[in-house]
Amino acid sequence: MPHYQLAILLGMTVALGPLALDAYLPAFPAIAGDLGVSKADVGLTLSAYVFALGLAQLIGGPLSDRYGRQRVLLLGLAVFAAAAFMVAQADSLNEMLAWRVVQGVGGAFCAVSVPAIVRDQCRGNEAARLFGLIGLVMFIAPASAPALGSALLAVSNWPAIYYALGGYALLLGVLLHYRLFRRIPVRVPARTPVQSLVTNYLLVLRHRVAMRFIALQTLAFSAMLVFITHASFIYQGWFGFSSSAFAALFAANVAAMAVLNLVNRRLLLRFPSVHILRTAVATQHLAIALLILLVLLDAPSWAVVACLMAVTGCMGAIVPNSLAGALDYFPNLGGTAAALLGATQFTVAGAVSALSTRLAGEALLPIVLIMAVCSLGAVLLANGAPRAVQRQAAMQATPQGLDAPTPPSTPR
């Protein structure tokens, strides 16, 4: 199956997450009015979804390894759609919260299946290029989701947003069944004992190089999430941009990630993914270091904005390469490895982001310093990773009934 077709279908699947997060943001006032709660209370529905989306991947990943990608992915879409329809009919905040958790579980099963499918089809630089192409498709979702929600609100009320999400999930299930799973090689699920659904995590956790990639992506993502958490304060509160200017600047950050994603795909034709990853992590850290200097010097807003775009843009090269590096060792446990990466990324980054709101207050410098600490950790993890690959692969044992990690193709 051509990579661009595979990327479109898988990108549409990954887009469920951003759509479920961002499409209903314009409807917060309407939801608060209908349910008789505050906007802050409605915000709990977002936190509930993210929490379930992160933790449920730990269940969905091993299930996809044992029972197959198609079963788990289509089950996730069905659960997501059913929960979306139930959220649309919620009469209270507690009811909405409960169904958002269920929706997060369905979304997690979908999210964790995508990198596992990629790992089933290819590895190394080829996998990194495919992850990049999927990311490029997925970038459309966070950029367009608020506009889509606003358009639905203009012609209907807020439940229409969730009916649209449910309908999208059902349509996607039909497309994947007929256009994807009937056209790609089917990996035979590993019929290991049920208890291995838990013990398989030990194999991933013991793999030092794979865990290095997972920790690296988590820290880089944490730095970006800290910025996203405080983006409204930085642009509107600190620099005084209007709401329309804030929307444009936020979209510019998404565009920067898309550009670096395209550059990364071209570089992967000539350079090993791990070398590009190291360069992207170092570039992100240098941009944050320059950002600290600009804040100390009270530099003009355009300079700070340019640095922030560089910081977020680097994620367009960091994510696909670190994903490919982490999953490259587990040809039959791609779901388990992807689940551990996804759950770690969401929980750690969410905790760091929440901590930053308490530590930073209403000052820009503490926010940037927290980003710098996260980025420094990613730089330290990036150094030495390629040299450890072959040594780690040689030391790795193969527990009975589990997948044997295989060393990736690394340049000499």
TrEMBL record:
GO CC annotation terms, alphabetical: plasma membrane
GO MF: xenobiotic transmembrane transporter activity
InterPro entries referenced in this protein's UniProt entry, alphabetically: Efflux_drug-R_Bcr/CmlA, MFS, MFS_dom, MFS_trans_sf
NCBIfam families according to UniProt: efflux_Bcr_CflA (TIGR00710)
Name this polypeptide is given: Bcr/CflA family efflux transporter
Species annotation: Alkalilimnicola ehrlichii (strain ATCC BAA-1101 / DSM 17681 / MLHE-1)
PROSITE patterns in UniProt: MFS
Every Major facilitator superfamily (MFS) profile domain range: 1-389
Transmembrane feature ranges: 42-60, 72-90, 96-118, 130-154, 160-181, 213-235, 241-263, 275-296, 302-324, 336-357, 363-382
Signal sequence coordinates: none
Keywords: Cell inner membrane, Cell membrane, Membrane, Transmembrane, Transmembrane helix, Transport
Domain of life according to the entry: Bacteria
UniProt cross-references to Pfam families, sorted A to Z: MFS_1 (PF07690)
Membrane topology listed for this record: Multi-pass membrane protein
Biological processes per GO annotation: xenobiotic detoxification by transmembrane export across the plasma membrane
Entry's family note: Belongs to the major facilitator superfamily. Bcr/CmlA family.
SUPFAM superfamilies xrefs: MFS general substrate transporter (SSF103473)
Location(s), subcellular: Cell inner membrane; Cell membrane
